[in-house]
Amino acid sequence: MTIAITGASGQLGRLVIERLRAKVPASDIVALVRTSSKAADLGVQVREADYTRPDTLDKALAGVDTLLMISGSEVGQRVAQHRNVIEAAKKAGVKRVVYTSLLHAESSTLGLAPEHVETEALLKSSGLSITLLRNGWYTENYTASVGPAVANGALIGSAGQGKIASAARADYADAAVIALTTAGHEGKTYELAGDSAYTLAELAAEISRQTGKDIPYKDLPVADYTAALVAAGVPAPWPEALPLLDAEAAKGALFDDSRVLSKLIGRPTTSLKDSVAAALKAA
C-alpha cells in the first residue's frame, strides 16, 4: 500500500513521515511537496505537488492508495487548493483520504473553521472513503512564546482564563499514522485534543517554575496585544490573527475534555511540563 502525505516538508508532515517509516517500508511512502529540495532529507520518494497546479497533483497521486491531506497554510485560499487535491485523488483512484481538520469544526467560532467545514463537505460529497482528524491546537503555537516571555519577563496574550486543551505536534502525528496504517477508521471523525487543559496564566507559572524566574501572565485587550506583536516585528497576518484567536480561546474555543486523542494513540498526550521544557531547550 502506497501512502502519500501532502505538505510533507512542513513541521507536522515531517513528524508523520518519521513515524510512518517505523511502521511501513520507506518505499511505500511518498512525500508530496511544492519544492522537492526541501524534502530531500526525508528518506522517501519525493514528488512535486502544488495545490494551485492540478497538473502536478495528477502526476503526484498516481499509484497512491491512501492520502494524508494536511490542510494548507494559506488561509483564504485553502478551499480551492483542497478541492484541487480531492479532484486529483478521485482521478488517480486513491482509495482513502485522511484530512487534518479543526477541533469541533462545525461549531467552532474560530475564524479558521469555515474553510475546514467547506473542505469536509467536499470530501463527504467526493465519493472517496475519508477519515477526518479534527486537530485541536498545537501546544507549540503557545510554547513558541516561551523564549520571548523569558527574555521580556512576562507572557502576554488575550486568552483570559480560557482553558486550552492543546497537544504537541508529535501527538497529532501519531494519530495520523494510526489512521493511515490500521483498520477501522473509514468514515470516522475524531475530535483530537490534549488530555489536560491549561490557562495562559498556568503556562506562565510553568515557565516560572522551570526557569526559577518570575514570569507572570499579562492579559491584554485584543488591540493592545496586536500592537505589541506589531512592535515585536511579528509578520502578517499573525498580529491580527493571534489576538482574535486568543479572544475565542477565552470563550472556550480551544477546550475539549473527551481524551479521544490519547485513546487513539494509546498513550497520554505530551504534558505541558514536557512541552515547556522542550521549548526552553530550543530557545
Automatic annotation (TrEMBL):
Database matches in InterPro entries: NAD(P)-bd_dom, NAD(P)-bd_dom_sf, NmrA-type_oxidoreductase
Pfam families linked to this entry: NAD_binding_10
Domain NAD(P)-binding: start-end pairs: 7-181
Protein name: NAD(P)H dehydrogenase (Quinone)
